[in-house]
Amino acid sequence: IDIFKYVIYGVAAAFFVYGILLMVEGFFTTGAIKDLYGDFKITTCGRCVSAWFIMLTYIFMLAWLGVTAFTSLPVYMYFNLWTICRNATVVDGANLCLDLRQYGIVTIGEEKKVCTTSESFIKMCDSNELNMTFHLFIVALAGAGAAVIAMVHYLMVLSANWAYVKDACRMQKYEDIKSKEEQELHDIHSTRSKERLNAYT
């Protein structure tokens, strides 16, 4: 349990740092979009950084989908256990059993059932730890689900931001080509005007 606790601390710290990196990246790419006709190098850098963060966030989102699926199993198991405990107190003398094979905890060949007639089951139902553990698993599932929703939202925002930066690069190239062509036309026109003036003189 201690090792698992330190793993959770490490993951929380890593995602805190990752959130700060995403915030800094958002400032840089947003600055690149605001300076649409400004420095072209900033826009290109913002494009590359956005593409890299899209890929990284997509990988993390898939990992958190796995964590969400993993945390949903204990919630389902504890909900069934809590329901059996509640029904055992309502119906006197009822022999309700929970088959552990349906959760994949034990193999199909082993028959492991936890029934309400055993003393250990009654103690477990009366203990505060069952309620606390059930609520903690619900909080863990909600947190994992919130992380997945946040990453999906960030992927949408980041993809739109990347598309804006890409369009900014194209617009910048178009403006550069247009200004060069206008300058060339102006030079040609002024040269012809000088030639005509020289011909008249």
Automatic annotation (TrEMBL):
Subcellular location: Cell projection, Dendritic spine; Membrane
InterPro entries: Myelin_PLP (IPR001614), Myelin_PLP_CS (IPR018237)
Keywords: Membrane, Transmembrane, Transmembrane helix
Keyword Phosphoprotein included in the entry's annotation: no
Annotated GO biological process: neuron projection development
Transmembrane segments: 6-28, 49-73, 136-164
Gene Ontology annotations for the cellular component aspect, listed alphabetically: axonal growth cone; dendritic spine; filopodium; neuronal cell body; plasma membrane
Major place of residence: other
Membrane topology: Multi-pass membrane protein
KW Membrane (keyword) present: yes
Entry's family note: Belongs to the myelin proteolipid protein family.
Quaternary assembly: Interacts with OPRM1. Interacts with palmitoyltransferase ZDHHC17/HIP14; the interaction leads to palmitoylation of GPM6A.
Protein known as: Neuronal membrane glycoprotein M6-a
Organism of derivation: Lophotis ruficrista
Gene name in the database record: Gpm6a
